[in-house]
Specification:
The complex is a heterodimer of chains A (226) and B (483).
Chain A (H helix, E strand, L loop, with lengths): L1 H8 L22 E4 L4 H24 L3 E5 L1 H5 L3 E3 L6 E2 L6 E4 L8 E8 L7 E7 L2 E4 L7 E5 L9 E2 L1 E3 L2 E4 L10 H12 L14 H13 L7
Parallel strand pairs in A: 1-2, 2-12, 3-5
Antiparallel strand pairs in A: 3-4, 5-8, 6-7, 6-9, 9-10, 11-12
Chain B lengths: L17 H24 L8 H9 L3 H6 L6 E5 L4 H14 L4 E3 L7 H10 L11 E6 L4 H8 L3 E4 L7 H4 L2 H12 L7 E5 L3 H7 L5 E7 L26 E7 L2 E5 L12 E8 L5 E7 L4 E7 L4 H15 L5 H9 L7 E7 L2 E6 L4 H12 L4 E7 L19 H4 L2 E7 L3 H10 L7 E3 L3 H11 L5 E5 L1 H13 L10
Parallel strand pairs in B: 1-3, 1-4, 2-3, 4-5, 5-6, 6-9, 13-17, 14-15, 14-17, 15-16
Antiparallel strand pairs in B: 7-8, 9-10, 10-11, 12-13
Classes of the chains: A alpha/beta (226), B alpha/beta (483).
């Protein structure tokens, strides 16, 4: 919704296709794929569906330079696997070199406001995290950013998210894009860059967005724009 | 329909352990009452939970010991939305039926809040000053309260996504309810909203006597599931439900194509529903058994309140009230604080409508906008624990409804900026959005722009308490615990 609004404010045409459970996707039909999260039970449904109907197409799209944004549960499923507290592993689609493990029933969920610093971006990204699983990023991907406030991937190594090629995974939601317009624009630029390398986006005012981000930075005692 | 006979309860102190229990209970009650009075004198809010906590520290079984002395037993109201209004409606109807309900204060719906209500309504010897307990219970607290209170009737209203960061997930709540109810005796009455597949499917095969209610008025049906709908997938087999029609959120006429569970024929139905915008509603309550029906009119607005009315009426009928008493109770009901409560302030009218999750928020928006365009609306969003700390839910609210129908929105609360951004992406211009963190300042500004008409205020739970505090300082309302 945010990407669409911002594109339309700039006079760009956008079409959004929702791919439901059981529906195959066309790797060439979109420049940007978004994978969201769900509750535990839906996560299992999503995992099965990704394996059955979407895995090959997503990999092909990534090879071809498409942008993927995977958030929360979606982030866990673009890795190699998710190991739940109980029950069998849920296989992921392996777009990012990472794996996630739930440390067992009774362990605390990582919940709260999350602020991270991303290399090459002036403003920190702000949002909310709520996950039981701990994610570990392998050498084939790099973390998206350094945690300034909150837990991040696993609450231990100080990193949050993962990125490789144009595939982004993160626990940041709350939601992610409205309060981090520069990140939304980065995704849009990379998606358009598939056809039009070096594309420039006309600036938007982003006044209210910046206020919302600054309010969160002030609340969490994080340094403002770096 | 066979009426459940009142369960006779032991009156007087438990024989087992006799005198000692009586003494300890008396001490617990005395200390609880002192705590309540102190907490009020120290302006520590309404003392709605501390007395219960203190009393339970002295006598851990205070909930059980006091509730079992209520002559007509206890009733529990559980669900995401509508608990407070349903419980208050039910208490009001039961008063019309000659009972003397003991009920917990709005929002004080954990075990301590219920214990507080019982302590306050008991004398020092543990004799209750009422004869029926009507308690709204936080959906995740149901497993702790059910064994202690041994309810004779439980109302399950609905399950919506709310405060996910507190409870994890809706399926989990449904499972908690099932585990809480499996040990219930067979004479317990389970009143369930049959239009909510998650509720109905979770309770339909539990022990106890199932009584269902639902809407039966297709003129209020909506063509598609809104995007706040969470019950897309069958609670048991994971297949997406098929809907013939929906009323709001995921309430409607559903069917699971795989396991066949479907919205059943209901025992009590709402027919010929006439919504009068924010001013109230009228409907016919029809009882399947015997074909009896009554036309009722209330000041409660919106379809979501029709469900609250149905829930309360169905429960009341199974607690011995007559249809005439239901009608009388509904007609004379005044809303709970913050739930469509009307307040006079500075010569203007203000209507406060609690809006704490997407489904509720959407219904409130639909209701306030059904009267035509408005000059201003005040929205107050907090992210305290009682509100839910994660405000992503704002993006599941159909705020687009506001874009062409209000001239200006004043936003306040700890997450005022998040709401402002949400409104911007909903299509409001930046100039139409006013961020004012100070509650009094926001109220003053919105009232000044209300242009003679009523000002609609849409707050989350703790934002409502804060706004109410301002109104109290202005002398417009009393303290919430006096309400």
């Amino acid at each position: 919704m945010v990407l669409t609004r911002r594109a339309r404010w700039r006079g760009l045409e956008v079409s959004v296709t929702e791919s439901r459970v059981g529906e195959a996707i066309d790797p060439r039909a979109a420049d940007l794929f978004f994978i969201g999260g769900g509750e535990d039970r839906q996560q299992r449904l999503a995992s099965e569906d990704l394996q059955r109907t979407k895995r090959g197409a997503l990999r092909e799209a990534v090879e071809d330079g498409a942008v993927v944004l995977a958030v929360c549960g979606g982030y866990q499923l673009v890795g190699h696997f998710y190991r739940p507290a109980e029950g069998e592993d849920l296989p992921g689609v392996g777009l990012l070199d990472l794996w996630t493990e739930h440390p067992g029933p009774g362990t605390r969920r990582l919940i709260g406001n999350l602020v991270i610093e991303v290399e090459g971006m002036r403003d920190p990204l702000v949002g909310f995290e709520n996950h039981g699983g701990r994610t570990h990023v392998g050498p084939g991907a790099r973390p998206l950013g350094r945690v300034l406030h909150g837990f991040g991937n696993n609450g231990e190594d100080g990193w949050e998210g993962a990125v490789s090629r144009h595939v982004y995974g993160t626990y940041l939601h709350g939601p992610l894009l409205p309060k981090n317009p520069a990140f939304a624009d980065r995704l849009t630029r990379e998606a358009l860059g598939r056809h039009d390398p070096g594309v420039e986006l006309p600036p938007l005012p982003d006044t209210l967005e910046a206020r919302a981000r600054d309010a969160m930075l002030a609340r969490t005692g994080s340094p403002a724009s770096g | 329909m066979r009426r459940a006979e009142p369960v006779s309860r032991a009156v007087g102190p438990s024989r087992k352990g006799g005198h000692l229990i009586g003494t300890r209970l008396s001490a617990a009650i005395a200390l609880g009452k002192v705590t309540a009075s102190l907490s009020r004198r120290l302006q520590r809010g309404g003392g709605t939970t501390m007395p219960g906590r203190v009393a339970r520290a002295v006598e851990p079984r205070v909930l059980m010991l006091l509730s079992q002395r209520l002559r007509w037993g206890s009733v529990i109201v559980a669900g995401t939305n509508g608990k407070t209004t349903t419980a208050r409606l039910l208490a009001h109807i039961m008063e019309a039926a000659g009972r003397h309900p003991v009920h917990n204060r709005a929002g004080a719906n954990l075990a301590a809040g219920i214990a507080s209500a019982l302590v306050e309504h008991a004398d020092l010897r543990g004799r209750p000053m009422g004869d029926i307990g009507i308690f709204e219970v936080d959906e995740a607290t149901v497993p702790r309260v059910v064994p202690a209170v041994a309810p004779r009737l439980i109302v399950f209203t609905n399950l919506f996504r709310d405060q996910l960061d507190r409870y994890g997930e809706i399926d989990h709540i449904a499972t908690l309810w099932r585990s809480a109810a499996t040990a219930l005796p067979p004479d317990v009455v389970l009143v369930a909203n049959a239009d909510d597949p998650l509720v109905y499917d979770a309770v339909r095969d539990l022990p106890g006597r199932l009584v269902t209610y639902g809407m039966e008025d297709e003129s209020h049906a909506r063509p598609a599931l809104e995007h706040t709908a969470e019950a897309r997938y069958c609670y048991r087999c994971g297949t997406p439900y098929e809907y013939a029609l929906t009323y709001f959120g995921h309430m409607g006429r559903y069917r699971c194509p795989t396991c066949g569970v479907a919205r059943p024929a209901v025992d009590v139905a709402a027919r010929d529903v006439a919504l009068a915008g924010p001013d109230g509603s009228a409907l016919t309550i029809a009882v399947a058994d015997g074909g009896r029906a009554v036309r009722v009119t209330t000041v409660l607005p919106g379809l979501y309140n029709v469900y609250n009315i149905l829930a309360a009426a169905t429960a009341a009928l199974h607690l011995g009230a007559s249809l005439a008493q239901v009608e009388k109770g509904l007609a004379s009901f005044a809303p709970a604080f913050g739930r469509a409560e009307r307040v006079k302030v500075a010569g203007r009218e203000l209507v406060m409508l609690l809006s704490k999750n997407p489904a509720g928020f959407n219904e409130v928006l639909r209701t306030v906008l059904s009267g035509g365009t408005l000059p201003v609306v005040l929205i107050a969003i907090n992210d305290n624990i009682a509100d839910g700390r994660d405000v992503s839910w704002l993006w599941d609210v159909d705020a687009e409804m506001l874009a062409s129908r209000v001239a200006r929105v004043v936003v306040t609360g700890t997450r005022a900026e998040d709401m402002a951004v949400r409104l911007l992406y909903a299509g409001l211009s930046e100039g139409a959005i006013e961020v004012e963190h100070d509650y009094a300042g926001a109220l003053r500004s919105a009232l000044a722009q209300a242009d003679g008409g009523p000002l609609f205020v849409l707050p989350t739970y703790t934002a409502m308490l804060a706004l109410r505090d301002v109104l109290r300082q202005w002398g417009a309302v009393g303290r919430f615990w006096e309400h």
